[in-house]
Amino acid sequence: MKKYFLIGTAFFCLLGCILVCQTITYNDKKLHVVICDVGQGDAIFMRTPSGSDILIDGGPDDAVLGCLGKHMPFWDKTIELIMLTHPHADHLTGLIDVVKRYKVLAFGYEKIGNPTGAYKKLIDELEQNHVKQIFLWQGDQFLLQDGVIFKTLWPTKEWFDQNSISETSSDANDFSMIELLTYNHFKALFTGDAQAQAMEKIDSTTGRIDVLKVPHHGSQTGLTSEILDILNPKLAAISVGAKNKYGLPTTFILDLLKSKNIKTLRTDQRGDIEIISDGKSWKVN
Amino acid sequence: MNSKLLVLLLLILSFRFYLFYSNRYQFSDGEKVDFQAMILSSPQTIGSQQSFTANYKNQKIRVTTNGFPEVNYGDSVRISGKISNRNNGLLIYFPKMEIVNGSANVFQASLGGINILREKLISLFSKTLPAPFSSLLLGIIFGIKEQMPKDFSNNLRTVGVFHVIAASGMNVTLIGGFISAFFVLFFKRQVAIGLSILAIIFYALLAGLEPSIVRASVMGILVFSAQIMGRQTLAENSLFLAGFGMLFLDPSLISDVGFQLSFAATLGILYLKPLFGKKEGVVAEVSTTITAQIATLPILLANFGTYSVYSILVNGLVLWTVPILMMIGGAGAILGLILMPLGQILIYLCYPLLLYFESVVNIFGNLGGVLTISSFPWQFAAGYYCLLISTLIFLKRK
Q: DSSP letter at B168?
């Protein structure tokens, strides 16, 4: 019996050490942006200086859970906000598992659905878990107490009302939400699967940014030379699966980024891409 | 066992084999089928696909479909699609499938009940710990290997400790060994046998009632009961009788990897483990694992084609945590179903060990060192077993 008591005490001691360790590492009062390596799809996780957890898209499967596990302390099972840029399987399917396993406080998405099994399942899970659902339009903002701001840049309500969407086509990409993250001097732009025509309409308000999540996994239709000139990012991150069947990212986009001397990182080559900022400067971890 | 009886049993078995294989319906490649079947074992989710086994014309067909609609075990499904008959197995890829529940019988209802309990356990663990720790713990305790992140499960496979979480025959055999050894420390033999049988049945149900688990459970219950009674020969006889009964009922099992694994692993534990002498506690668990590995190595190599050079080292580094994790985590699961926060505390207590387990697996997984065996000649397996058996006989004589 004494033996078991000793072992039990040793475990409590270890657990205590880990608690202290993780509290220090995960609460460093800095903003962490992680472009998760989820294969062919998108999932971006952010932990703000005060420890709020925010997720944009969930990738094509449960790989996103591994990313969350790595970048959150083990006892933190709350995600303050999830945003879904558009309801395509490579962005939403992983969210089903996230909603099942984490307490999610708010879910922001746009007013387009589709009849796929995965989308229905996601909405079912949101309802079952009583997650607050919010439709987002251009101009909507989330202001966090630690100074982090999320601003929706696209789509506008007018444009949305004028353009109808046929339920199954890839048109949903035109509707893809574009989100701007600001933390003091640090700016990052998350573009989902947005197309160049949408990117052109938003950039005047944005100014220059530090980090650009390249739209649509580096597809040809996402960026133009003019857009890059205006945004002038220092780092471009491409979320893409190794040897994907679509041939992404395209050489057109890679060459374009190279010609502008923009440092480019890809999840298929690097795994998770983590960017850390204190609001003044930033670095890639 | 009496040698005359053995010859008689073997004769009966070969006659049964002859009848079975000469009368079997042959599916042709590309044959269109339309049938209804009940899902009797837990479907597996791999990425955005799910796959399960359905019985049709007395043969098992592996069905792979899209992830939605989700099927659970106990569901009846109507499947229409094309059979592909390759690699010694019948497969149907992406058939038209609908779930036709409605005429639920008692059996289905009880399966449904187990499924709810299973879902509750998954939810308890995955709401307490992040991935991959929650899945690792679920895998270790219950053999539930759903929701294991792909890269981590690849690493588990690479370093050769996948058996810890796979709900395979070998897993049940090991767990049966742990459980019976554990209970016998605290209870009278008769009580220990009763508890072990209950625990193994419960475990098999939770693990998803894969046919391989059911078979291994039957074998395990017989053999471990006999061992607790202290009758080595009884244990041996019951293993052979269990094997005989199963093969008699379903001769196609002889080519089933799960059957081969659980039979060989149990044999290994029965015959090889006594060579290590009587050990207790963690040492006993480790020797159980090692003997099972020795006995199953050629089967693993022939069917999975890879073997990590670090396998034995990694097994040695992590396996001692398994019984501890099973005890604390198992207690956490039971308490958590009654009062969630109480169970969560115990599950948190598993975290340091899980972190250690995960780090070891990932470090060695990223090191590589994997031998890939593209073709595994049967002569090698035969030679291996000849050597093993002769060594065994030699050592026993001394």
A: -
Nearest to B130 among A12, A69, A120 (CB): A69
- Sheet bearing A263-266, strands edge to edge: A141-143, A148-154, A178-183, A186-190, A211-213, A235-238, A263-266
What pLDDT was estimated at residue A263? 93
Among candidates B318, B331, B326, B298, which has minimal Cα distance to B363? B318
N-term to C-term CA, chain A = 47
Residue A180, φ and ψ in degrees, nearest 5: -110, 125
Tell me which residue in B126, B151, B355 faces A18 most closely, judged by beta carbons: B355
Q: Is residue B67 in some structural domain?
A: yes
Neighbours of B316 (CB within 10 A): 13
pLDDT digits (tens, 9 = 90+) for A118-161: 898 899 999 999 999 999 988 899 999 999 999 999 888 888 77
Contact B186, B393 (CB under 8 A): no
SS3 B100: coil
How close does chain B come to A99, measured CA to CA in Å?
10
Confirm whether B332 is domain-assigned.
Answer: no
Return the closest-CA partner of residue B159 out of B385, B383, B357, B323: B357
Identify the band that residue B128 occupies on the pLDDT scale cut at 50, 70 and 90. Answer: very high
* Nearest CB to A74; choose among B133, B147, B149: B133
Helix, strand and coil in chain B, % to nearest 5: 65, 15, 20
Partners of residue A15 in chain B, C-beta under 8 Å: 348-349, 351-352
Report residue A16's pLDDT band, with 50, 70 and 90 as the boundaries.
very high
CA distance A52 to A94: 20
pLDDT at A66 over 50: yes
How close, in Å, is residue B129 to chain A by CA atoms? 6
The percent of residues in chain B predicted with pLDDT above 70, rounded, is: 83
B8: its two tokens = 């008689």
Contact A11 B126 (CB under 8 A): no
Asked if B67 lies within 8 A of A74 by C-beta distance, the reply is: no
Q: Give me B87's structure tokens.
A: 């690699």
Q: Which among A12, A18, A74 is the nearest to B130, CB-wise?
A: A74
Q: Is residue B85 part of a domain?
A: yes
pLDDT score of B146: 67
Peptide bond into A60 cis (omega under 30): no
Using a CB-CB cut-off of 8 Å, the residues of chain B touching A101 are: 123, 126-127, 131, 134
Cβ-proximal residues to A135 (8 Å cutoff; 6+ apart), any chain: A108, A109, A110, A111
Q: Which residue has the tokens 């810890």?
A: B164
- Site from A62, A72, A97 to mutate, B interface, most B CB atoms within 10 angstroms: A62
What pLDDT, on a 0 to 100 scale, did the predictor assign at position B53?
A: 80
ipTM topping 0.85: no
User: Residue B34 and residue B64: Cα distance in Å, rounded?
Assistant: 15
pTM of the predicted model, to two decimals?
0.76
CATH code assigned at B61: 2.40.50.140
Taking CB atoms and an 8 Å cutoff, what residues of chain A touch B150? Answer: 61, 63
Examine residue B120 and state whether it is found in any structural domain, yes or no. Answer: no
Q: How many domains does chain B have?
A: 1
Please check the confidence at residue B342 and state whether its pLDDT lies above 60. yes
Can you give the residue range of the structural domain that contains B38? 32-99
Minimal-distance CA residue of chain B relative to A9: B349
For the residues of A210-241, what is the DSSP string, one character each? SEEE-GGGG-TTS--HHHHHHH--SEEEE---
Query: Counting Cβ atoms within 10 Å, is residue B26 exposed (0-12), middle (13-18) or buried (19+)?
Result: exposed
Residue A155, preceding peptide bond in cis (omega within 30° of 0): yes
Core vs surface per residue B326-336: b (16+ CB within 10 A) or e: bbbbbebbebb
